Task: structure prediction
Amino acid sequence: MLSGEAYLWVKAVHVIAIISWMAGLLYLPRLFVYHCDVHPKSETSETFKVMERRLLKAIMTPAMVVAWILGLVMAVDGGLFAQHWFHVKLLAVCLMTGFHVFLARCKTEFAEDRNRRGQKFYRVVNEGPTLLMIVIVILVIVKPAFGH
Result:
């Protein structure tokens, strides 16, 4: 079991990782919106490719991994797997992870000059992580009593 101070440090780093991950989940689709406007293989396209790759590999993926690991540590330590609200939160985090994987595939399509989606698609899809974040925050703060 985590001591009081250790738990607070784990929680603080978890929140930092979540913020970093969310920033990337919101920013990467925005980069895709602008990337759609440039010609493949142009200097600007190549710059977007570097930005997208670095964002995903240097910030988003490490932040996601840290968020998952520390989140699971706190969940096990706090016995959260027995609480129904946590099951819904875990589902939302899994959906967020699926969105991350989808964005990684989109990044690969751009990197290989194979993107076939337009700006409108990326503008709409950009709302997904925001909606999931709202659900997750409400679940964590309110802890609604599902099934009771």
Remarks:
- DSSP finds five helices and no strands in the chain.
- The helical segments are 4-35, 43-77, 84-111, 119-125, 127-142.
- The chain has one domain: 4-142.
